Amino acid sequence: MILKKSVFFVIILLGFMVQSQTLGSKVDKETLALGEVGTYTVYISGLQGKVVNSAPENELLPFHFEEISDSVAVSAERYERIIQFAVFEEGTYTIPAFEFNIGGSVQRTVPYELKVVNTAQKGDEINDIRKNKEVTLDAVDYWDMYKWYIIGVLALLILIITIILVRRYLAARKTSPKVMTNRTIRELEELRKKKFIERGDYRSYYVELIDITRKFISRQYAIPADVLLTDDLIEVMKRSNSISPENEVIVENVFLRGDLVKFAKTFPDREMMEKDFNDIREFVKRSSHDLETEQLRSGV
Description:
This protein is α+β, with helices and mostly antiparallel strands. The chain is 51% helix and 19% strand.
């Protein structure tokens, strides 16, 4: 009876051993130099066609280990995974125990401790641990590398162009006929507030009136009235045809009278001074019409 039980136990034990799988692992070196290639191997025997599941390719070892290759060989009875790796910092590192699912049964490997040392000596020639990889770049890669520099340069160019256009626009507004007309009207009003007419100070009055008119002609009609003598200015105005005959007569009469007043050859009364003031103001207001006529004539 005892013999029968023993035989039965042996048969069960042998059946269990036949049905079980053996999981093993190994490392070829427990001490590595910086950048030296090591090999970690996991093997399973007695698979009997069962499926083995584990971490994906190149994702088994911890981040300290840079995996160079990760290959798996599987047959009906054996599974073998060989990983080549390197470590590029000195220190002691651990390859932990990994879980492998073998046909629904989870088994674990044993952990290993590796020491990484720097074997270089003072004066040794320094060589690259690994050869440089040649990478072919296309347009998309160059765009990814330099896009922010390109965008920055374009933004700077747009800003510069915008500033230039705004400055030109503001400068054009400052020199526009309407702006020039309004500015001169204000200058004439400031002249009136000085009450030269009321005090009978006709010399100061005509000096400033003619000076305001000269500056206006220079700005509005691009005639150098501020540097020409009265006779020369009258000749240039008539030759340029930019000022209407009606306005030319007003400017000519006021300027000639002003010259006579400055040299004390005539003494205008208050009524004449008021008339000259009003005539110049109307000339300034009508200047835009002169410019429109000149543009139609010249086709500008």
